[in-house]
Amino acid sequence: MDFRLGGSRGCSEGGVTPMSDQSDSRGKSGVLSQEHALLGAALEPAANGYLEASYYGDGSQEPEAFDQGAALCDVGSLVSTCISGKEAAAFVSAVFTGPVPFAGQLVCSLALTGTGTVVSPALVAGIGPQDFCIWAPAETAEGLDSWLHGIAAIDQDGKAPYASVAFEPGAPFSTMLAMVGPQAPQVLGDYLARGVKLPAPGTLSNISLDAIDTVMLHPQIPGASQKDPHNHAYLMVIPNQKVTVLWRSFLSFNSVTPVGTSAFWGWIQEKCPGIVDLLDEPTKPQTPQDLHLKDWLRPTEDFIGARALADGQIP
């Protein structure tokens, strides 16, 4: 698995989709479902049909891990899509509210309708000059996918500005883990070769963790102070055949605590409550102002929905 930062079509092997042939009446099992069950997790179906660890035990102690140690969470239900083509940069500029990321840059962004309501939040990564990869929550991923394909298919008077834009699903054989908390850099640093550093806020890079190739993302939350160690999260895209090894290895640290998705999104709500409000009611028309997400908008106002926001023409 290699994003090949700066290369052509480098995102074709860098996405995240938990895959398993097993399922039960509750949903489909992910790669780590058995590991979660052994730890006493409550497995509940995510919006994409996969079982996720919502919490362990009664979950009451999990929020402390974000403040005092390192919280480890399986966030494999995030849905990844790769975007490429000679008009890909122009397309990303039009459909997302954040700046167009250069290769190796990671941007928190929104996709808006023409009337200025939010379709979905997304992490948008630059892989090459015309190659990008996005991650979206399962709750809004299907709507985002339909919206992106609709914009790409626009044809006005025989002109199709995004005709070359192509979409590919993220790699179906990888899982994403998140590690959050003041001890996370120290834990992850133990896996790095001498001289290798973790990605800086707002970037991603190919990182080898004890000879296991991963892609590591370090989102920079708009409006959050990067001087506060509690605001840092590291997201790791790990090959399925290696993710169990790393999961168990991470948990060998006394400072690392497994947390469920309920606690993870609770942490997101503290940092950026509008995102969770959106996911709670994904079909409700809401603007960035409604969700207090104005920091997610670039100032140039040349993206879809910007004119409606500026004119106050919100339905």
From TrEMBL:
Superkingdom of the organism of origin: Bacteria
Ranges of residues in domain GCVT N-terminal: 34-191
Record region (Disordered): 1-28
InterPro entries in the cross-refs: GCVT_N, TrmE/GcvT-like
Gene3D superfamilies referenced in this protein's UniProt entry, alphabetically: Probable tRNA modification gtpase trme, domain 1
Protein name: GCVT N-terminal domain-containing protein
